[in-house]
From TrEMBL:
Its main location: membrane. The keyword Membrane applies. Residues 74-329 form the G-protein coupled receptors family 1 profile domain. This is G-protein coupled receptors family 1 profile domain-containing protein. It is a multi-pass membrane protein. InterPro entries: GPCR_Rhodpsn (IPR000276), GPCR_Rhodpsn_7TM (IPR017452). SUPFAM superfamilies: Family A G protein-coupled receptor-like (SSF81321). The chain crosses the membrane at residues 62-83, 95-114, 126-152, 173-197, 217-244, 265-285, 315-334. The keyword Membrane applies. One of its GO terms (molecular function) is G protein-coupled purinergic nucleotide receptor activity.
């Protein structure tokens, strides 16, 4: 009787247990989902905790808001100045205008990132950011890289008085090259907007990569590879052109009439090159390993968190160029500068004299046919 009673008690107890492992996990799974499922089962059947990497965005969001507030007036004034300036007659002006367009795209997309990172965006807006505005940020980023490289290269070509350099400085060629850059970036980036996404439940800490299907993750990795190649080529052109331009300009020290103007131009070239390095090099040091974490090649949670924080920190530096670009427009484009001085007459009190300014601009002009015999 005792043995029979024991079997009956054991049978009643077993009936209360979940009928399967899936029932066990479903009954204990939290209702709130994070960027990955709250409980994953490893091959051994043990539960694995989720890995949340984007739950410390507060400081970044504050800095993004400051960048947006500081850069918005400068870029709006830049738009007004370019509209009221004479029509562009130099290739450098074409590249500067395209750089401004890239900045405006970034300014349009930045509020969506800020709202998502603050956690105040509704779910549909968070998904929209992942599909559209985040991609727009990267289109703007790489357009800025390309056009800054063109600006610095153009500065060197203006000191290189050859027939080939003159052709490369034609306004028509600059417009064609700018169009090619935009079309290339759209060809690479737009599929990230168009490829289908997963249907996931609403969650507080949404990671954009968690929305991507396998084909989207593969295209994302290819996009990073192609954009990194673009960055490396642009960086090589920037480094070589800025070094040669500064070296050539510094040779004018023997001529007192040209030295003041040459020093000003050399300083502007060096400043643009330094801004390029400061804004974009740190980000690309982190970008590749972070992509490995996104595509699940790197799976360690602590490593993922460090890479995410590194990516966000360096992306912040890249976005910071929004504050510097209006200064580049002012110092590298004479019509823009004259228009700004009409709008703000007080700037003329601290500016160089008109004679020195005209001399500096003369140095920036493409070579005449009489100068084409000089070789770089």
């Amino acid at each position: 009787m005792k043995y029979k009673h024991f079997l009956q008690a054991d049978s009643e107890c077993s009936c209360e247990q979940p009928s399967s492992l899936s029932a066990f996990t479903s009954r204990r799974a939290p209702h709130h989902l994070t960027m990955t499922p709250a409980i994953n089962l490893s091959t051994g059947g043990a539960p694995e905790k989720s890995c949340i990497v984007n739950d410390q965005m507060g400081p970044f969001t504050v800095l993004y808001i400051l960048i947006f507030i500081i850069s918005l007036p400068g870029n709006l004034v830049s738009v007004w100045a370019f509209i009221h300036s004479p029509r562009a007659k130099k290739s450098a002006s074409i590249y500067l205008i395209n750089l401004l367009v890239a900045d405006l795209l970034l300014l349009l997309a930045l509020p969506f990132k800020i709202m998502k990172d603050l956690g105040v965006a509704p779910w549909n807006l968070m998904v929209f950011h992942c599909q559209a505005s985040a991609v727009t940020i990267y289109i703007s980023l790489y357009a800025s890289i390309a056009f800054l490289a063109f600006i610095i290269t153009d500065r060197y070509l203006q000191e290189c008085h050859t027939v080939r350099s003159l052709r490369l400085q034609e306004v028509g060629f600059a417009r064609l090259l700018s169009l090619v850059v935009w079309l290339l970036l759209l060809l690479i980036m737009v599929p990230n907007m168009a490829l289908p996404i997963k249907q996931v439940k609403e969650q507080t800490y949404l990671s954009c990569s968690s929305l991507k299907k396998d084909i989207s993750l593969h295209w994302h990795a290819l996009t990073v590879f192609l954009c990194t190649a673009l960055f490396l080529n642009a960086s090589a052109a920037t480094l070589i052109s800025s070094t040669l331009a500064v070296k050539k300009l510094l040779r004018s020290r023997s001529d007192p009439k040209l030295w003041a103007s040459a020093r000003k131009v050399a300083a502007s070239v060096a400043a643009v090159a330094l801004a390029y390095v400061f804004s974009f090099v740190p980000y690309h040091v982190v970008r590749t390993p972070y992509t490995l974490a996104q595509t699940k090649v790197i799976t360690d949670c602590e490593t993922k968190k460090r890479l995410f924080l590194g990516k966000e920190s360096t992306l912040l530096l890249s976005v910071l160029h929004l504050c510097f670009d209006p200064l580049i427009f002012f110092y590298l484009n004479a019509p823009f500068r004259h228009t700004i001085r009409k709008l703000f007459p007080c700037l003329g009190n601290h500016a160089i004299s008109n004679a020195k300014e005209e001399a500096a601009e003369e140095m920036m002009q493409p070579a005449t046919s009489a100068q084409q015999e000089a070789a770089c």
